[in-house]
Amino acid sequence: MLDALLILEVLLRGLAVGALIATGSGFGRSGAAPAVRVGGALFCASVAAYVINSSPAIGEALGPARPLSHVLSLGGVGAFWLLVRALFEDRPLALGAFLPFAILTLFGSVAMAMPEQIKPGFWVAHNLMEVSLATHALLIIQRSWRGDLVEARRRARGPFLIFVTLFVVTLSGFEIGESFGVAAPWYPLAGAAALAIFCLGGAIVLLETRSVLFGVSAAVSPADDSDAATGPADRAEIARLTALMAKEKLWTQEDLTVGALAARLGAPEHRLRRLINGQLGYRNFAAFINSHRIEEAKCLFADADQARKTISSVAFELGFGSLGPFNRAFREATGLTPTEWRKQALAQGSPKLEKPD
Questions:
Q1: What angle, rounded to 10 degrees, do the helices at 187-208 and 34-53 form?
Q2: Distance CA 4, CA 1 (A)
């Protein structure tokens, strides 16, 4: 009986590992940004290592290779955090985004080498770092929900949150049970079944929605807005949107939302989302608004009459809540900091740029 349960457990874990390999391959071969490809592949590899390492029978079969499997599983939450940022933030990530994965892996490796009497303290610290990163990842998904302009991705956020929460709660439940000495013959089999279900479900969802989740937004300038529409109705709506933005400079409002802009335009919110995403090429509302803000900032920085105006005052005037997000958005759009761009523009004697319509 025990042999049959063990065989079934190994088969279920093998199914989970196979699903993770397929998912990791899908990430690696996608046309997504490097952070998505690397983060997805690292996450799948880490979870696969956990699936293998969390089975005593399979772990023992690995022999000397078991510590390597354990090390590979240590940074899984860091890879998940990286993947969530890459999928839902729609902006390039610096190399620093890989630090949590590296820190968790290194810290866990050190914990493995510690004397038994102090090892629990290291693992508690490691678990706390994992909880913090996982919580922040879920907050990222929730925080950027309202401004997401990709309708399919917006619909996927709720199920994604539920799926991840159930996955974490289920795994935590099994690990807590093991720590309290639950030793029923069916217990490892139940854990393997849960892993197989979640890994297969995740593979199906991610591979079916990869064109939406892995898509790369097009860089569209507000100056090109009038040419982006493909039909008369869309063209008229875009013209109204462009005129409204130019006349009332709504982008100077710090807390402007898609719903508020749709109300001012007199259009349904879902239609405005579709226009900005499908016709203008923006995947999130912040990118659309910031494009107008950055164009206005460039006009101000190229104007010698505005040379005494500080960078921070320009940022606040344009609707940014603080200087940091403005500097980051400006650098992503131009490749230069605001100070560098202003110095270059004024040194070249640039004529005043035409303000965006």
A1: 160
A2: 5
Task: Note the pLDDT of residue 1.
Answer: 53
**Letter for the amino acid at 35?**
A
Rounded CA-CA distance 319/33 in Å is: 29
Cα distances (angstroms) measured from residue 171 to each of 13, 163, 177, 194 = 14, 12, 10, 8
**H or E stretch covering 180:** none
The residue count for the chain: 357
Q: 36: alpha, beta or left, given left = phi > 0 and alpha = psi -120 to 50?
A: alpha
- 259 vs 159: CA distance, rounded Å: 23
- Kindly state the DSSP code that residue 74 receives in the 8-state scheme: T
**What residue ranges define each of the domains in the chain, with the CATH number in brackets?**
2-213 (1.20.1070), 222-347 (1.10.10.60)
Fill in the amino acid letter for 349.
Answer: G
| Cross-strand partners of 94 | none
Coil, strand or helix at 284: strand
CA-closest candidate to residue 279, choices 356, 217, 355: 217
281: phi > 0 → left, psi -120 to 50 → alpha, else beta; which? left
Nearest Cα neighbor of 245 from 298, 292, 315 is: 292
Per-residue confidence (pLDDT) for residue 45, from 0 to 100: 93
Task: Give the three-state DSSP class for 148.
Answer: strand
Q: What whole-number distance in Å separates Cα of residue 252 and Cα of residue 213? A: 30
Dist CA 216 CA 278 (whole Å) = 13
Would the pTM of this model clear 0.90, i.e. be above it?
no
Please list, in sequence order, all residues whose beta carbon lies within 8 angstroms of the beta carbon of residue 308, skipping any fewer than 6 positions away: none
Question: Considering only CA atoms, which of 303, 325, 305, 304 is closest in space to residue 315?
Answer: 325
CA 55/CA 9 separation, integer angstroms = 9
Which tens digits make up the pLDDT trace of 100-157?
Answer: 999 999 999 998 889 988 888 888 888 889 888 988 988 888 877 777 887 777 777 7
- Euclidean distance between CA atoms 194 and 175, whole angstroms: 12
